[in-house]
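Morning!

As promised:
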Amino acid sequence: MGYVKGLRCRECGREYPKEPINICEFCFGPLEVTYQYDEIRKVLSREVIASRPPNMWRYAELMPLDNGPTVGFDVGFTPLVRAHNLGKALGVSELYLKNDAVSHPTLSFKDRVVAVAVSKAREFGFDTVACASTGNLANAVAASAASAGMNSYIFIPSDLEQGKVIGTQVFGTHLVGVLGSYDDVNRLCTEIADRYRWAFVNINIRPFYAEGSKTFGYEIVEQMGWRVPKHIVVPMAGGSLITKIRKSFKEFQEIGLIEPESCGTRFYGAQAAGCSPIVTAVKNGTDLFKPVKPNTIAKSLAIGNPADGFYAIQAIKQSGGWAEEVTDDEIVEGIKLLAETEGVFTETAGGVTVGVTKKLIEQGRIPGDESIVISITGNGLKTQEALIGKVKEHQVIDSKLSSFEALLLEKGAEVW
Amino acid sequence: MGVNVRIPTPLRSLTQGQAEVSVGGKSIREIVDNLEKAYPGIKERICDEQGNLRRFVNLYLNDEDVRFLKDLQTEVRDGDGLSIVPAIAGG
């Protein structure tokens, strides 16, 4: 089985066979998986998809595996939440959260890409998986390697949040902290990947790995009743997710699962002000971005030299969308706003997305009477440092009813 | 003496397998032009038709991304190290 034709350079169009390679030998452009859409169209219908278990593999024909998955069977199909309260707070009528804060098993959308990458690594016959990560990918690779019984090496910036470090180490991986930013880690890993025959999920396995993100988009379409939203706000680090969600909508159109005319979604990119090379390029109207040195509490988005930055800019522009950034204070406000209105605790990246959505609505760039999806890609329990001193201290009392009632009186509440 | 240029695997077929070569020049542009003289075919891999750095090629001068410096106009000195690194991933 499998419907992959091969790999093709996004820059110069040169074709390559299915191999663990990620860049064009000629121009260094990134390679992308190509599919036999004519064949997929014959076998994949809404009914077939709906009859399958609620996980990301219900769209298996559009995933780049030759055989089925061998790990991550239960990943995906996270809730699409109708956010009435947040909608009211922001003054919009049809707002949804695609909530990968509750992704199985490591609470971020990276579980999707890793399920594909590790299955693909096994198909290629690797025994060791590796990655450069800002944290969420580290968690996902370590967990997936553990469940696949594979060896793993994970490289992170040395200053990550404790939740991301412990949430990686617990799986028994080889975790290496590197002095410097993610971009320094990535550069080191590129050199390591050159020398060691490992499956670096976001380097030599990257064309396959990145395809896993499409399931985030497929699910949104299916969960909205086989239609696309008018607007979607997506956080950007390397810039891959926003391009893959757009690709997912186009593929559903290509294989006839949704009407072509329904595909007018506008894509909005969200970054932190302390690391916003893609937003800056969109605002300046340039095709190229200038790499930056990140300085933000949104560490999972702190990539100063985004590999897919160019394509993210294109996706935003071509769709008629826009890009915006928020400060660290606005990120914290965004986290709290989402928690207090919808009962969803997202990590700093989600604070960025919520904050940017608020800003775009206030600016009138997103209208109040059309469907909007906010992409929540990670869980707040992993980045608690961002909220220390930013939430109210809780009160401590001794174990007497009178003490509790004194507290109620202090709060001005009714004592029964 | 010259600038030590680190060659990534995909370009080593042009440098007879050498991972590092020494090239003279006063700026990165001159280094690239002199690389081309010594190893014909390498420039079109690094630069586009207009002679600008290709979108997915990163050059690091002594560990600093040259886009933070003066790009191809960046001056270089004997003994400097220049790394050619294909663009990379995210996550």
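The longest strand of chain A covers residues 151-157.

Hope this helps with the figure draft.
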